[in-house]
Design a protein that fits this description.
The protein is an alpha/beta fold. Helix content is about 30%, strand content about 20%. The C terminus is likely disordered.
Length: about 375
Amino acid sequence: MPDTRFDPLGPGRVVDGPEFDVFMCGVVFLDIIFTGMDRQPGPGTEELASGMASCPGGIANLAVAARRLGLRTALAAAFSEDDYGDFCWRTMEEGEHVDLTHSRRFADWHSPVTVSMSVDRDRSMVTHAHPAPVPATELVGDPPPSRAVIVDLGDGDGGSLPDWVTRARTRGALVFADVGWDPTATWDPEVLDRLAGCDAFMPNAVEAMAYTRTETPQEALYALADRVPLVVVTNGPHGALAIDAGSGEEVSVPALRVDALDPTGAGDVFGAALLLGTLASWGLADRVNFASLCASLAIQQFGGSLAAPGWGDLADWWQARKRDWAGSAYHRALRRRFAFLDALMPQVPPGACRRATATIARRADIVGLA
């Protein structure tokens, strides 16, 4: 990632403010992503993929997405001392400039690896992983001062979130929560009790309906809005729904029309963009539209953290929309929906961050970028 940066939160920064905009803790995987496949391979068969990407995944998707959008980002994670771990650490620290002060390297531990196969706007994954050598609470220790933290609701115990999250919130950090897929399909509603310690929740529609035992994303949105101030339910090609109890706003935002190549990490990009808009005090419609735009830019590229857009990509997209004055009603609607970008784009420097293009980077590609 180039050093020329745009700080969208710059005007609101104060000298004695928190060191980081966002802090997070989780598992970093080496993601190997195959895309451009006609079908999933069946037993005893081999399929050819027209595209492949290798990059840090898991929590790295979220950390990279936040950093490319200009957020000062810190991550606590375990990294192996094997070659996969070396690659992920270098990419995160030297290539993406994510702060890894609270992360550690471990010998005699295998890096978690996920192979993802993207077919027809969906994906299947195979993962090999061993438990981290130390629990997340030991990695985090005392969380650094930050304006926000991001946590998976599945990381809690009973009705409580991890202690480090509670400490961070006590010090003024906003708590943004996500939730992962439940492989047991029990969708225990007690997980939602942990929302009492959160300020925002960002599930997808399937997760939201399953945990709330509702039949539609709209019903799930209302059920969750009784538990947490800000709720955003993403619904793939149908867009996103949101309620902000603080401002009294409620919005339904359509998805952008794009040719989806790979959905890997799109939810993380959406979450990072929503967090940025919240810290910048944008209106709810602008926040959700911006998050939808960032996610739509991501799914048009080979996946995971490689596909997360930077401000250079956003500036390119907006300039293309503004040049298309003779466009269709849909394109005119886009210019209205994203008119708020006019106040931001003049501040974006010409060399602003753009997404990565390599698959497995050479060391020479990132040395000297820190």
